[in-house]
Amino acid sequence: MGSELLNAMQISAMGMRAQGERIRVITENVANANTAAGTPDEDPYARQIITFKNEMDRQLGINLVEVDDITKDKKAPFPTKYMPDHPGADTNGYVKMPNVNMMIEVMDVREAQRSYEANLGMIEQSRSMILRTIDMLRN
User: Most buried by CB count within 10 Å: which residue of 4, 10, 38, 126?
Assistant: First the structure.
């Protein structure tokens, strides 16, 4: 029973690590949400997307979640904003802005936070079960 609980704790810890990385990526997106293109020919900050994968830990014999890749969002177009005095403005006065949608980022960070908290709860439950088992063995 002990090794299964330790494995559960390891799985949850890796889930927490992955969600922590997801929160870091979302934070970068939010921090750069207003970073316009510097010149008319360049693109502004592009929203980053994180993907996960299951990776078999052969030593433990369990599947763990890991970050697969962090890529730029190439599907969402860059919106434009009228700012004729900006150095990145085109001939019509429009500047390309990042393709960061704050509503999506807020929803993503809430989901990541809930997942992080769920994994933390699993670690706490496993720890509690291990401590109860140790108490039972002492008596």
Answer: 126
Q: What is the pLDDT of residues 52-91, one digit of tens each?
A: 999 887 887 888 899 999 999 999 999 999 999 999 999 9
- Cβ atoms of residues 102 and 110 within 8 Å: no
Could you please report the per-residue DSSP string of 37-106? Answer: -SSTTS-----EEEEEEEEEETTTTEEEEEEEEEEE--SSPPPEEE-TTSTT--TTSEEE-----HHHHH
Pair 51, 69: CB distance under 8 Å: yes
**Torsion sign (Cα): 127, 118, 61, 51:** negative
Which pair of tokens denotes residue 49? Answer: 């997307």
Distance from chain centroid for Cα 47: 12
Amino acid letter, 54: N
Domain ranges of the chain: 2-138
Taken in order 89, 90, 92, 95, the sign of the CA dihedral is: negative
